[in-house]
Design goal:
single chain, Thrombin, subunit H
Length: about 130
Amino acid sequence: METIRRSSPQATTSAQLRRHPRVRVLAPFPCSLALVGLKQWRAFDEGGLGVVYDVSAKGARVMTQALISPGDRVAINLRLPNQAASTVIELATVRWGKEQTYGIEFQGVSSSADTRLQTFMDRLSMPSVGPTP
């Protein structure tokens, strides 16, 4: 008799709960952050530089020394690899933080920024084609 193993509801991973697939970045790329709203500072004056480790159409995981906290609203400038210009996200919210790593949810995404993000993620998702023997 064959035993069927079912996973419990607790075994659901956070990846399964995501509405927008996250893409791990093979070579992390730079970004800069600036607080928006009442608490403002200029990115370069306050250590608002960071490194992006993964990205989705609606957010990113960023490591930075900037003094940000969950709930802070930020603008983020992404230097996506192989793109001539930076991708600016006008409004994002810091959702979580652990040590110097933060989860940032994009909210103010222009159509051009959305197109750049999608193009970047599509390139990362494509299997690489190696030389034929």
